[in-house]
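Incident log, entry 3
Record: Stage V sporulation protein AA (213 residues)
Problem: checksum mismatch between cached and fresh output.
Input:
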Amino acid sequence: MSPNPAPTVYLQLRSRVPISQGRIVTLGHVARILSDPEWETPLRNLELVHPHKWDGNLLLIDLMQIIPKVQELIPGAKIEPIGQHHVLVEVIKKPKKPSMLLFLLVWLLLFFGSALTIMNFHADVNMQEVQIRTVEMLTGKRDEHPYLFQTAYSFGIGFGMVVFFNHLFKKKWNEEPTPLEVEMYLYQENIDQYVVAQEYKKMKSSQNQGDKT
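Fresh output:
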């Protein structure tokens, strides 16, 4: 009976991991690790890849790259993967100082773009006549310029947007995700799936070229 049998290593790969440019990607960056206490630190520090500029800002690492390195560190180790078998590593460049001019430009673009969209919608459905008729039904008098009603309606649009998006500047009313956050999450999921498919296609193509040579 061997006094020190090879341990079992449980690996749960993350879906997407940000890494600063110039850092070496280790197993601790891309996976949650469960093993014998004496091996957890060496496993977390196990180097997987050193991103280069020509690799781009997205790298795909899968278990077929990780398993040989783990077995090299711990000969005979039994590896038990949990969950997905690949992880996307996003190489993040040093953040630049935000430009106030660019911020103001984007803010003005969004502000006037939203205002024009709302005004064009109101013009298409003849909202002014609807408001005039609504005030006439409520008061019994026809007012061609129901400013009080229009002012309340304008504040109602703003309040409704705040409630709908569950956001006021950085404050959220509850932990429920906003529709925009859900759409951004689904968009990011689709992007990740596309990138993974393309990276596997590149790996397969390079492997076929290697077999031919």
